[in-house]
Amino acid sequence: MAAVPTRNDRRVILHLDYDCFYASVFEVEQPALKSVPLAVQQKQIVVTCNYEARRRGLHKLQLIKDAKRICPDVVIVLGEDLTKFRDVSKELYSFIRGFVWGERVERLGFDELSLDVTDMIDYNLQILNPHDLTNAFFQLDVKDPTVGFSYDATRYLGKTVPLYPEGIATPLEIDSLGMRLLLGSHLIGYLRTRMEHDKGFTATGGVSTSKLLAKLVGSVHKPNQQTTLLPPYETKHDSSLEDSNVIQFMDSHDIRKIPGIGSRLAQKLSHKVNSHSDAEGDGERRLTVRDVRLFPSMSSATLERVLGGPGAPKGIGVKIWGILHGVDNTNVMEARDIPTQISIEDTYGRGRLATPEDLRRELEVLTRSLIRRMRTDLLDDTVTDGTQPRWLAHPRTLRLSTRPRNAPETDGARSYNWNRISRSAPLPSFVFHVDENVDSIAERLVHEHAMVMFRKLHPEKSGWDLQLLNIAVTNLVESAGDQKQSRGRDIGKMFRQQEAVLKNWSVHESGPAAEERAAVDHRATPSPRQATSREERMQQPGDCTGVAVQVAAQVAAAAWNRNDQSGSEESEDADWQDEDECDRSWRVSPANVECPLCGAVMPQFAQLAHQTFHATEKGGD
DNA sequence: ATGTGGGAG
DNA sequence: GGTTCTCCCACAT
Prior knowledge:
By secondary structure, the protein is of the alpha+beta class. Helix content is about 35%, strand content about 15%. It has three domains: about 240 residues, no CATH class; about 140 residues, Dna Ligase, domain 1; about 130 residues, no CATH class.
């Protein structure tokens, strides 16, 4: 029997999914649209439609032609320009973030959010009066006990899995998983109400203990509803796992519906499972998580063999094996202030890009958008005192991608080509000249750079048949010296103390053995802060993070021992360099240290980081 | 550093 | 005759 991965169920995670987001943006703009079937068009397809349209048989990714045939009175609006959607998405994001303690609110695409509300739930469990659960009050502000909402702590709000119509009125232990999820259900209900009343957007919600489970359970009842995945999550020792609601819930899903399992992985899995039991050729019956999980001799090692190979991420077997058991220990990451890339693309019908003139014209259109996007997203708009606005980050690479159409086969049929090809080159610095106008920058960039890259991609003089052009800037380097206070950390103090801190640990004495010893030693020592009460920590949010982040990053990074950051970056422009990039999102709490890049949690370093922080605090200053 | 592939909405 | 417009991450070289 293959080992069953263990889940971390200490957290409470909420998932929000705005209902048919693009269509809702138009409805909020023009409320009259709410009562008609509404479809949002990009090129020749319906990218989304409202529920009135769905009632009449329309759906996502349908051809406009078909949509009109099925529902002749459908109202169609054009949604190729994403600016509006992007802006609304950011607004809703900061609205929700305003309610959540800490920074753990993650945006997935334009229309989904994951929230780690563990701290809020823990606090509200503490202040819960066990003798009057039906008249509970959920406090949204630690400092002001009047800010919050009333709720009934004997019932779950909204739907549950498995479904109990009354939301259950049960005597739950105060500190049980069920009670934490129950509070989560009331919190997400409150957030959904506020979103609708204040902003006009309805959302579907999910409540569980991980991003994976909250997202999956959220989609059980749509739209404008919410669902909580009920305990028990754990499996009794030596049972066949089926007494866990998580296993039951995961098992019922089509393998392709699981986040993290895309079409390629689903295809490989179905090949593996069906080649054994399938007598029919090409039998396309749906494959469930259960089918894969219980397949003979299935294990993380089997999955690694089936799914791994050249190009595949290492450890994919372990990861997928976990997912099949509902295990997702990745953290909700706080928002990044800048994106990692910006790209603009358009698709073209046959013959639309036949000549170099066509090509150049279209490239200029795309490039103008790109420069405008760079200015709106990357320029510091807080500077209004007449001086030149500063770039928050400089992309270092320009990339041009195309997707050629396939040549017709002998029977004249053309198969669809999904693949892109691309060329990259350093981004010239004139694109950062803020006082030059967009058109002339775009013209120059296309003429001197993009066209050259295009010729490398397509050496023929003309007659290419391209479906798609994409131009992107990537490889963004954040600028230094920006005091965008990420939770009041004092950088000056941090650097002044850093040397002393690191000396204690001898982390810069190289060698993994030394770091390992340091880690072990400190793990054995009790931290003076361990006994600190929860409220005390809550009222000083992020107090420890300044030095601890710096320190834990160094120790953890060294011990993690993945990439030597030998990067000897040569300096072209001084202001391109940043002093403060790698450490900025390392998260340290009394229980955890978390890698900002992969989200891995390393609790073994938490105590180390905290202890040293407080030692420093005592000695320094 | 550059290019490709897979995944997400 | 045939799906949009993005964004993110990891791997290979």
